[in-house]
Amino acid sequence: MVWPILIAAAAALVLGGAATVVVLNWDSIVTAWRGKRVAVLGAREVGKTCLVKFLSTGSIPENYEQTTSAEKASGRRFSLKDLDLKIDDTLDVPGDSSHYADWKEVADRADLVLYLLRADRLFAGDAEVEERIRDDVRHIGSWLRARTKRPRFFVVGTHCDLDPAFANLTRDKVGDYYDRYRKLPVVAELVSHCGGAKHVTFVLGSMVTEQVAEALVYDIFRKL
Amino acid sequence: MPDLVFKAQALDNRSPDHYRVRGEDLAPGDATRRQKAASLLSSVTKAGGRVFDQDGVRLTVHGDRFVVSVPSAERDVAGRVAPILCHGKLGAGRRAELGARVAEGLDAFAQHVGRSIDPAKAELVRRAMATAPGAPPARRFGRLLWLGALAVALVLALSSLWSWRSEPTPSSASSSDPNRP
After folding, report:
1. Is the dihedral of CA A162, A168, A173, A176 positive or negative?
2. Lowest CB count within 10 Å: A8, A122, A132, B2, which one?
3. B174 pLDDT above the threshold of 50
4. How close does chain B come to A193, measured CA to CA in Å?
5. Shortest Cα distance, chain B CAs vs residue A128, angstroms
């Protein structure tokens, strides 16, 4: 008479344990099943479409076109060196500030928000670019703060190949280059708006060829 | 062009985008109406289906609304193709007339913002609009149709139930027989 009770108790314990594990890891399980939801945001001509196309197809566009309206981009599963990545469907959004509603829509459902900016123009001290970044991060910061579970937030500096200092960078000087970038006043403001240094990850690179685009994407997901 | 919305991104990628809503050009500071127009365009392109795609001319349809995109002859400062967009309702009118209105509207808007559209592309816009599917029945009409079908089914069910109940059963027939001893 004791055995059935013991078996039932053991089964209840195992089921209870399994249920607890599922509940505690629910978000990871859902993300693993449907893929990571990635929001690619940024002003015009920063490389959003190029990055979305790479995530969606593994290649960069042959012919570039202004993104004038939000477009669907399908997800996929792919391997990048030692990483096995699964990306969910997303939107390729236009860079003009009149499309902030599209930005918010894609950011609100994202596990990972990538904010792209022209690092070459920031280093060159382009005031218009700085002003636009300030406007963008005011909005993005408020959307991130409103989320109950904060998504990972990356600031991706693009077009670094156009900066001669980056082009001639040796491996031992990469850290110095990142430090110089982080110390730019607008970048410091960006970090402050988006929850402080522990909530912001920096990646610098370019998407001028498929190989360098792949290196940039690898760098992003390696830091996740 | 009372019901059409046009959009073109600035070629310098810095100036505000150009919007024309129902014949009126939106001022750069009119953020609310610009965002509304942008959302209108995006609501079609992100949820709709592509029904025409040839030589850069694309037609996307979602419900009874469409967005047609045509590349202008000019490129932006980065050398990218710079399309001009038009949003409108398909409606019940003739597609050829709608296509002509859209093509003319796109041409006028392009000229207004200092751009041009190749005549061959304008012709493709007309062809694209001619292939647009018919506007789906209005949602209210659809609901009425469902309600009507439900009412008919209910009436049929009730009448068959009534006739089944009112049919005399053998036992009730025998009990009401006045000649029964």
Report:
1. negative
2. B2
3. no
4. 23
5. 8
Which chain B residue's Cα is nearest to A100?
B35
Contact B38 A128 (CB under 8 A): no
Q: Which amino acid is at B116?
A: S
**CA distance to partner chain B, nearest, from residue A14 (Å):** 44
- The pLDDT tens digits for A178-199 are 999 999 999 999 999 888 889 9
Give the Cα separation of A60 and A214 in Å (integer): 10
Q: Which of A95, A37, A41 is nearest to A65 (CA)?
A: A95
**Cβ neighbours of A71 in B, within 8 Å:** 45-46
- A45-72 pLDDT, tens digit per residue, is 999 999 999 999 999 999 999 999 999 9
B9 inside 8 A of chain A by CB: yes
What's A86's DSSP letter?
Answer: E
**Nearest-by-Cβ selection for B13 from A44, A69, A70:** A44
Q: Which helix H or strand E contains A191, and what residues bound it?
A: helix A185-193
pLDDT, one tens digit per residue, over B112-142 is: 999 999 999 999 999 999 988 875 555 556 6
pLDDT band at A1 (very low <50, low <70, confident <90, very high): low
Region A161-172: mean pLDDT is 88
Q: Does B58 touch chain A (CB under 8 A)?
A: no
B50: contact with A, CB 8 A cutoff: no
Chain B interface test: which of A46, A49, A90, A98 (most B C-beta within 10 Å): A98
SS3 B86: strand
Q: Which two structure tokens, joined as six digits, stand for B122?
A: 């304008």
> What CATH homologous superfamily does A3-222 map to?
P-loop containing nucleotide triphosphate hydrolases (3.40.50.300)
- Provide the strand spans (E) within chain B: 5-8, 18-21, 24-25, 49-54, 57-62, 65-75, 81-89
CB atoms near residue B29 (< 10 Å)? 8
Q: Which helix (H) or strand (E) holds A158?
A: strand A152-158
Residue in A closest to B36 by C-alpha: A98
In this prediction, residue A168 carries a pLDDT of: 85
ipTM of the complex: 0.81
